[in-house]
Amino acid sequence: MTKRPSPISATVDFDADGIQHGFLKLPISVDESAWGAVMIPVTVVKNGDGPTALLTGGNHGDEYEGITSLLKLSSSLRAEDVTGRVIIVPCMNTPAVMAGKRTSGLDGGNLNRSFPGDPDGSVTEKIADYFTRVMTPMCDVVLDLHSGGRTLDIIPFGASHVLDDPEQQRRALEGAKAFGAPYAMMMFELDAAALFDTAVESQGKIFVATELGGGGTSTPESMAITERGVRNFLIHYGLLAGEVEMPAEPQVYLDMPDASCYVQSEHSGVLELCFALGERLEKGDVVARVYDMTRSGSAPVEYRASRSGVLAARRHPSLVNMGDTIAVIADIVDSLG
Ligand SMILES: [Zn+2]
Q1: pTM check: above 0.85
Q2: In this protein, which residues make up the domain named Succinylglutamate desuccinylase/Aspartoacylase catalytic (predicted)?
Q3: pLDDT digits (tens, 9 = 90+) for 12-56
Q4: If you measure from the C-alpha of residue 26 to the centroid of ligand 1, how many angstroms do you get, rounded to a whole number?
């Protein structure tokens, strides 16, 4: 059955040259606003013919490197600097960003688990559907800026995926490297089916994702990496003039071949991480200890590394519950793809 058109309408003209700031408007009817709308900010910068890049932050509402850097870019990018079209959406899941949460403050939806979406679904599913059926077909390349949010802290990397089409995979991987973060990653997703990544990749478009820190805030270091990376991405795919600026230290390549990279807690308690982010560890090393906070005098539960590699991500809060990811160990590799 064919889906009806998206209920979201844009207040900008995506085909007009110059710079426009507006909204993607989704009608809602809630207690606070009977005939209201979710207002998703969007900036379109177009200068003649050329590729179209879509830059998205706030897919998860508590991941501030992307949100902040794209808000900055939307007020500084000039049309005359661009070849083609740059579409900037700093707060993709606006109700989540407004709530300061990973998921929507309106319906609890996790946007990046809601693709391809549904025009007749929840608010979050309607947003996903718009990006799948309206935004992605307009684009050649997509950069979706994630970081750890409130519950994770992650080393900074550009990432792409293993794809069926080797040329599409190669072009995405080159973009993930050119983002110019200290690390580049071939990423294994725990469940890829409902990701924005998959919705874009399945249309044959180039998709680059990032992780850039976390803890529910940004730092001068993570902001500098993010802003340089966004610029590098636009230069690499021909939307901005200039040279890609790589980090001073050689970029480290990481691979996550399977689910054994994820260390997940089987206990609740207080978490002690035994390695710092970016530190190398060996198979069998104690990665973390979880302490029972309901009594003193009992030994902690130890979690050991099931593989050697680098600590790529860690749980950020010290309180941990059963099932939480407490660490991610990635392989250091000589080449990717
Ligand atoms: Zn995210």
Answers
A1: yes
A2: 49-236
A3: 999 999 999 999 999 999 999 999 999 999 999 999 999 999 999
A4: 22
- Tens of pLDDT, residue by residue over 150-186, are 999 999 999 999 999 999 999 999 999 999 999 999 8
Residue type, 195: L
Give distance in angstroms: CA of 186 to centre of ligand 1. Answer: 16
CA of 148 to the centre of ligand 1 (A): 6
Tokens of 89: 């959406």
Cα-to-centroid distance, 313 and ligand 1 (Å):
13
Q: Tell me the C-alpha to C-alpha distance, in Å, between residue 19 and each of 45, 55, 80, 121.
A: 4, 15, 10, 32
Alpha carbon of 147 to ligand 1 centroid (Å): 6
Distance between CA atoms of residues 266 and 290, nearest Å: 9
Name residues whose C-beta falls within 8 Å of residue 167's C-beta, 6 or more positions apart in sequence: none
Centroid of ligand 1 to alpha carbon of 187 (angstroms) = 14
Q: Report how far ligand 1's centroid is from the alpha carbon of 61 (Å).
A: 8
Phi, psi of 140, deg, nearest 5? -100, -40
The Å distance, Cα 145 to ligand 1 centre, comes to 8
Distance (angstroms) between ligand 1 centre and the Cα of 58 equals 8
In terms of Cα–Cα distance, which of 19, 90, 55, 77 is closest to 240?
77
> If residue 201 lies in a helix (H) or strand (E), which one and from where to where?
helix 196-201
CA distance 75 to 21: 9
Confidence of residue 145 (pLDDT cuts 50, 70, 90): very high
Note whether 142 and 200 are within 8 A (CB): yes
What are residue 54's DSSP bridge partners?
Answer: 87, 142
CA–centroid distance, 275 to ligand 1, in Å, is 23
